[in-house]
Amino acid sequence: MDALIPFTTSGSLVDCVDKKMVVMLRDGRKLIGVLRSYDQFANLVLEDSVERIHHGAHFADIPRGVFLIRGENVVLLGEVDLDLEDTVPLIPVTLQAVIPIHLEDLEARRRRDAQKAKILYEQHGFCREGGEGDGY
């Protein structure tokens, strides 16, 4: 009977080892690389990884090499379909072309998040992010 119960823990990652994966982190970064190892906390080791920066239909990759990711920072993990990877309608550009636009987007998101946090704190009684009891 236990064999019919699907994995709902990090054990379900066993089929993903040695495959090309995309990982989205809590801070919004997107990493693409080959999953080499993981543990019970879903800490991941990516090899030959790149950080992909998007803006519209344009993207640039920053080589990162071997990348260790703490499991609590993983928002999304998915396998890259190698047969469809080259058919994605994205246009590669130089890093110098996309970095200034990306930095503007990050700053705009930071301002929006700060404004939302202020409204949630002042009008709805939520605590501030990073406040007391939020440390590890």
TrEMBL record:
Keywords: Cytoplasm, mRNA processing, mRNA splicing, Phosphoprotein, Ribonucleoprotein, RNA-binding. It comes from the Eukaryota. This is U6 snRNA-associated Sm-like protein LSm1. Its main location: cytoplasm. Plays a role in the degradation of histone mRNAs, the only eukaryotic mRNAs that are not polyadenylated. Probably also part of an LSm subunits-containing complex involved in the general process of mRNA degradation. Component of the cytoplasmic LSM1-LSM7 complex which is involved in mRNA degradation. GO terms for biological process: deadenylation-dependent decapping of nuclear-transcribed mRNA; mRNA processing; RNA splicing. It comes from Botryobasidium botryosum (strain FD-172 SS1). Interacts with SLBP; interaction with SLBP occurs when histone mRNA is being rapidly degraded during the S phase. LSm subunits form a heteromer with a donut shape. GO terms for cellular component: Lsm1-7-Pat1 complex; P-body; ribonucleoprotein complex. Residues 8-83 form the Sm domain. The keyword Ribonucleoprotein applies. Belongs to the snRNP Sm proteins family. One of its GO terms (molecular function) is mRNA binding.
